[in-house]
Inverse folding.
């Protein structure tokens, strides 16, 4: 069924009105009842209900009715937050970064938070058996992990030192304004992952924006466990 020509904004607004009516009703409602409340044609309501049902925001209700005749289709709002609504994760990140920045020893706390994050990444990314990884394998795993996270990493060597260059930052705008918080989180992330893998190499430091399109992670051998 096609809705009569209208703008996308008007259609979205009408859909929200249909959902609002159902949310305010203590009982399931028929198409005719919704149309009566909104003062629109039942076909308009039916069109928007199809979309709302498809999005999981509204559900059909089976009436326990006996007797002749086909009972009308009844609908009710699914009682949950709107999962199709707007997200503002960048705003949340800015709030958290601002709070971190105001803390004493903000850099150290940011590294610790990153370490905790890195140690848990095995559950969502490719797992590496702890204690069975050589230095070369660990660096390869680190590069692969950073690539999956969107850092566009590249292996580098300078003055005999192994490095990982980062050509992209998934939190670029935030990192530019909150370098002292965001970059230590990234350092801790890499250190935590290496710790979780039991790698004989770790990330000694992270130099942010050494070039306009480059951050550099410096790698160092870990002392052997005694």
């Amino acid at each position: 069924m096609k809705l009569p020509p209208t703008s996308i904004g008007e259609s979205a607004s009408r859909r929200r009105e249909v959902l609002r009516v159902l949310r305010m009703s203590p009982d399931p409602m028929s198409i005719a009842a919704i149309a009566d409340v909104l003062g629109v044609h039942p076909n308009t309501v039916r069109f928007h209900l199809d979309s709302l049902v498809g999005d999981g925001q509204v559900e059909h209700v089976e009436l326990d009715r006996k007797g002749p005749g086909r009972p009308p289709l009844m609908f009710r709002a699914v009682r949950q937050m709107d999962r199709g609504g707007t997200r503002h994760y960048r705003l949340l990140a800015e709030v958290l970064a601002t709070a971190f920045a105001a803390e004493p020893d903000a850099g150290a706390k940011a590294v610790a938070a990153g370490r905790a994050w890195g140690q848990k990444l095995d559950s969502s990314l490719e797992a590496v058996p702890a204690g069975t990884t050589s230095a070369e394998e660990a660096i390869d795993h680190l590069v692969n992990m950073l690539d999956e996270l969107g850092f566009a990493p590249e292996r580098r060597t300078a003055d005999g030192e192994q490095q990982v260059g980062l050509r992209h930052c998934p939190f670029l705008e935030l990192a530019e304004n909150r370098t002292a918080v965001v970059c230590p989180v990234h350092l801790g992330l890499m250190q935590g992952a290496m710790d979780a893998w039991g790698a004989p190499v770790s990330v000694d430091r992270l130099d942010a924006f050494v070039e306009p399109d480059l951050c550099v992670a410096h790698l160092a051998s870990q002392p052997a466990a005694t």
